Amino acid sequence: MGAVIRGIGVYYPEEILTNADLEKRVDTTDEWITTRTGIKQRHILPKDSPLKSSDFGTFAARAAMAKAGVTAEEIDGIICANISPDKQFPATAFFIQAKLGAKNAFAFDVTAACAGFVFGANMAHLLIDAGQAKHVLVIGAEIISRVLDWNDRNTCILFGDAAGAVVFSPGPKDRGVILSQLKSDGTQADALYLDCLSGGTATAGKGMAMDGKQVFKAAVTEITEIVKSTVGKAGLTLRDLDLLVMHQANVRILNAVAEKLELPPEKMIINVERFGNTSSASIPLALHDADAQGKLKPGKLVALAGVGGGMSWGCNLIRW
User: Are 19 and 41 in contact, with CB atoms under 8 Å apart?
Assistant: First the structure.
């Protein structure tokens, strides 16, 4: 059977950190950030807040479940993608399960960085198609501000805090996830990584590290190729694609992929200027915006695509 998306929910803190605010913290400018990334602001959790990534994930999950009309007891599985977990272990998904009261659900985390949601969506599809689960929550939940080195202008300007959740449920075979492809290349592991082994917080000499040029090149090349390949393997063409929902890392990456795939602006969702890079939460955040804009109508062909540290990348092709 098909695995269709029944509900989408999001959560992000109220506090906004603008590029002008960052000018006061590090050696950068609004013009420099905007020109190179397209980011104008990002939502950041206050330092003194007691909230954790599992709280973000729980808030987003509740919103998605309400939209889907599914109760906590009906949830069979919880898959949480994140790079800013509550603890090294157990999985953040366990804490979300407890907070939701989803006593009948199995739970586990996915560590594929910014591609995590795509990996989780594939797992949800396979579980539902195999009859092992009926309703599966796939969540991206991040409080990246707590694991950043705020003295590193190459990384601290990029990221924001947010969560997004989706409820996958059984549907007609010709609807929902049609096909997914996942790829990884461990030889590029040093291109983008987070080294936080002391309680999940950045310490001197640790935190996010990134080779921007290598990540940019890999993102544009691999996302372009995997979207083409996934659409082709489904017996379709890029002209059949109604919407591409990509990981929101950088507007230059988004525009470069759109140009290579010859997709017009109306077939892209771009909200990186408002949220920055929210890692595993960015695709459900973008999906939520697409839904609000009326772009997720029945029968539409939608591709989800993400690339993240590892390097890992993937694409889910969905018939709405």
Answer: yes
Beta pairing, strands 192-195 & 207-210: antiparallel
Domain shared by 147 and 209, yes or no: no
Write down the catalytic residue from 122, 250, 277, 316: 277
Please write the tens of the pLDDT for every residue from 11-53.
Answer: 999 999 999 999 999 999 999 999 999 999 999 999 999 999 9
Q: What is the pLDDT of residues 177-234, one digit of tens each?
A: 999 999 999 999 989 888 765 444 444 445 788 888 999 999 999 999 999 999 999 9
Kindly state whether residues 72 and 180 are assigned to the same domain: no
Residue 235 CA from chain centroid, whole number: 27
Domain count, the chain: 2
DSSP for 88-113 reads: SSS-HHHHHHHHHT-TT-EEEEE--G
Does residue 196 have an active-site annotation? no
Rounded to the nearest 10°, the torsion over CA 280, 12, 210, 87 is -70
80 a catalytic residue? no
Domain interval for residue 190: 176-319
Q: At what angle do helices 92-100 and 53-68 cross, to 10 degrees?
A: 50
Rg from Cα positions in the chain? 18
Instruction: Please report, for the domain that includes residue 253, its CATH number.
Output: 3.40.47.10
β-pair partners for 193: 209
Residues 15 and 154 in one domain: yes
- Can 277 be counted among the known catalytic residues? yes
Same domain, 9 and 96: yes
**What whole-number distance in Å separates Cα of residue 319 and Cα of residue 309?**
28
Q: Are residues 44 and 187 in the same domain?
A: no
Same domain, 76 and 36: yes
Of 43, 82, 114, 316, which is the active-site residue?
114
pLDDT attached to residue 206: 58
273, 305: one domain: yes
